[in-house]
């Protein structure tokens, strides 16, 4: 999510990023009041390449995932549609969250993209985050149903489409209060503009919204994902192949179980670890902003944001690149594209059929 600015009416408490950057450039006093801004600028050569890497890997990895799913007919199933939606939201998150966050954080003039883009970007950014989180949960529930209850009727494509539409609508609804409190303010004399979320005189409402969003978009999805994959792991552990099989015959099955268990552990860990820092930072800031050292406030905030954005790079690898079918179909496409003199329709048939 974007770097929040908690309100201009209490600058000493909120430590507003854009306001401080502009004041730093226009004021002759560059003392300890702006120590966090100066420290952030010193790490600029390191932060920007890290964000650039996240964008390149996130966009390229998720694009390949979407491309393979769209081009390969036998991968057109409910689980892969969920994964495709996850890849699309992650790719959109990389395109909207990262460039605008960096430009806003390091530009001395603050928000330079205009009023319309202010509201549009600040709507798309959290929506893509929430869509990714809810889609991860939907994938976990779908895999739980397919593994623990294999005899039950699988989710239909129409139901999948309804769930995806519901995920996007729910995400937009959760963002609506924040967008209603987002303002585009120009300080013409100081030469800078802010685009931030203000809850002036509504501190209790702001905290209630922040904590409920944390519960709905992190605690509950993480709990659901953990429970689903725990049940899957237990089910696979108890699963025994029929007949009297020798130890050598059971080895492939045991290897498959270990592979799935490692994948499940990585999925839950990546989901929890990537988003934990930014949530902890926001909670500490809401409780008492002085719990975070002022000198390192902005640097910690940006690093937590970077960690959250890195989740968009993890998902393509964990959900697709580790799957044999995805790698097989990708190799077919690469081999087809490099085949000299092969007819186009022949290559398409190799991939799709």
UniProtKB/TrEMBL annotation:
<dbReference type="Pfam" id="PF00001">
    <property type="entry name" value="7tm_1"/>
</dbReference>
<feature type="domain" description="G-protein coupled receptors family 1 profile">
    <location>
        <begin position="61"/>
        <end position="319"/>
    </location>
</feature>
<dbReference type="InterPro" id="IPR000276">
    <property type="entry name" value="GPCR_Rhodpsn"/>
</dbReference>
<feature type="transmembrane region" description="Helical">
    <location>
        <begin position="82"/>
        <end position="107"/>
    </location>
</feature>
<feature type="transmembrane region" description="Helical">
    <location>
        <begin position="260"/>
        <end position="278"/>
    </location>
</feature>
<dbReference type="InterPro" id="IPR001402">
    <property type="entry name" value="Prolrel_pep_rcpt"/>
</dbReference>
<keyword id="KW-0675">Receptor</keyword>
<feature type="transmembrane region" description="Helical">
    <location>
        <begin position="161"/>
        <end position="180"/>
    </location>
</feature>
<feature type="transmembrane region" description="Helical">
    <location>
        <begin position="208"/>
        <end position="232"/>
    </location>
</feature>
<dbReference type="GO" id="GO:0042923">
    <property type="term" value="F:neuropeptide binding"/>
</dbReference>
<dbReference type="GO" id="GO:0005886">
    <property type="term" value="C:plasma membrane"/>
</dbReference>
<feature type="transmembrane region" description="Helical">
    <location>
        <begin position="298"/>
        <end position="322"/>
    </location>
</feature>
<dbReference type="GO" id="GO:0043005">
    <property type="term" value="C:neuron projection"/>
</dbReference>
<keyword id="KW-0472">Membrane</keyword>
<protein>
    <recommendedName>
        <fullName>G-protein coupled receptors family 1 profile domain-containing protein</fullName>
    </recommendedName>
</protein>
<dbReference type="InterPro" id="IPR017452">
    <property type="entry name" value="GPCR_Rhodpsn_7TM"/>
</dbReference>
<keyword id="KW-1133">Transmembrane helix</keyword>
<feature type="transmembrane region" description="Helical">
    <location>
        <begin position="119"/>
        <end position="141"/>
    </location>
</feature>
<feature type="transmembrane region" description="Helical">
    <location>
        <begin position="46"/>
        <end position="70"/>
    </location>
</feature>
<keyword id="KW-0297">G-protein coupled receptor</keyword>
<dbReference type="GO" id="GO:0004983">
    <property type="term" value="F:neuropeptide Y receptor activity"/>
</dbReference>
<keyword id="KW-0812">Transmembrane</keyword>
<keyword id="KW-0807">Transducer</keyword>
